[in-house]
């Protein structure tokens, strides 16, 4: 049930056009749509401020298309599909011709018609990588944050192996409200950045590295054991989670700014 339909229903109850029992029967079981293979949560936007995100990995193209159609029909909001292949994108394009594929991030975005075309202007999220090989995970974070309505500043390949590159970007880094640090190998960059800034740092370990990095476990443990305060850690290669969390942090400031 579309959000505007729910508002209309509530107005009808308020004006006495229908009874509360009748409204209850209409709303009952419409908070999600059961597609058989997926129960699509249509009220997530009302609860959290953003629609359900589709994790494409492990799903068939037809399943993804069905979920996209359900979400588009429910509300004209930006829709994110993460870990999407080009084949999945081509399938989504059949039901959402206006969708955009961000290949490096492996994200498909279906733009919503009633979403703002520009960032909401509360602050900038800096997305920093230790190396070029970390960029795909960083792009997942950046595209997620941008799709949620934020301004993103990308600062790539400034790892501790050449730490002077990081110091040269400190003006940009210090101007950010939230900082996402993406690093593989030993993952030391998050601690370094955390010790230099007064903004929250979201650390993202990546699976980049030689054998002893254990596919990102070494970076994850380094970040979890950071001696710098104000550093939080998401899971290995979870750029989406970092971008979403950064957006949630900025959304608190948006809400407080309107009160």
Describe this entry's structure for a reader.
With 259 residues, the protein is α/β, with parallel strands linked by helices. It has 2 domains: 83 residues, no CATH class; 135 residues, Rossmann fold (3-Layer(aba) Sandwich), CATH 3.40.50.1970. 41% of the residues lie in helices and 17% in strands. The chain is built from 11 helices and 11 strands. The strands form 3 sheets. It has a 5-stranded parallel β-sheet. Strand 5 and strand 6 form a beta hairpin. Helix 4 crosses helix 5 and helix 6 runs parallel beside helix 11. The longest helix is centred in the last third of the chain and has 20 residues. The protein is elongated and about 70 Å long.
- Our count of helices gives 11
CATH class of the largest domain: Alpha Beta
Report the count of strand segments: 11
Gyration radius (Cα, Å) is 21 Å
How many individual domains?
A: 2
Instruction: Please identify the structural class as seen in this structure.
Output: alpha/beta
Q: How much strand content do the residues show?
A: 15-25%
Helical residue percent? Answer: 40-55%
* Mean pLDDT, all residues: 88
Could you name the CATH topology of the largest domain?
A: Rossmann fold
The order of strands across the largest sheet is: 8-7-9-10-11
- Principal-axes geometry comes out as elongated
Low-confidence stretches: none
